[in-house]
Amino acid sequence: MATTHTYKKIELVGSSPIGTDEAIQNAIAKAATSIKHMDWFEVLETRGHIVNGKIGHYQVAIKVGFRVED
Asked: How much is the pLDDT for 1?
């Protein structure tokens, strides 16, 4: 018999002064402290904060899918 799974999606926003990749990693790492079975993510938005004509920090909105336990 094939195994089936049910997933739930949540939206997170990660930030970083370094770049978008680190913003995504920060969001996932923080969520991993309380959410089990995360399997995938998708990027929804990328934006940033400008300070004195330079990038102050990056923000990335993502959706994360995680498996609902049986």
From this structure: 59
